[in-house]
Amino acid sequence: MQAEVPVLVDFWATWCGPCKLIAPLLDQLEKEFAGDLKIVKVEADPCPNLVEKYKVYGLPTLVLFKDGEVVKGSQKEGALGKPVILKYLETYGVLPQTAQ
User: Per the similarity annotation, which family is this (predicted)?
Assistant: First the structure.
């Protein structure tokens, strides 16, 4: 996953209620932090190889990439709220601590 900015990958599924809950939030964050963060959505069901490769055990799952590599320990599972996602991005140095 090569990009000039960090990439947050959202593994989701059409049948997943929590995935539908966080989708608008992720869309909002992508607009809010355009140029600093890219958000990519991967539908899990048609991509079993990616699900296995990135050890996705539940949905939704967020995985952060920097410089084309998974950021160690960055995998998060569940319908997270905006404050939790912002803190997560701050923790991994994607956003400045004043982003909230």
Answer: Belongs to the thioredoxin family.
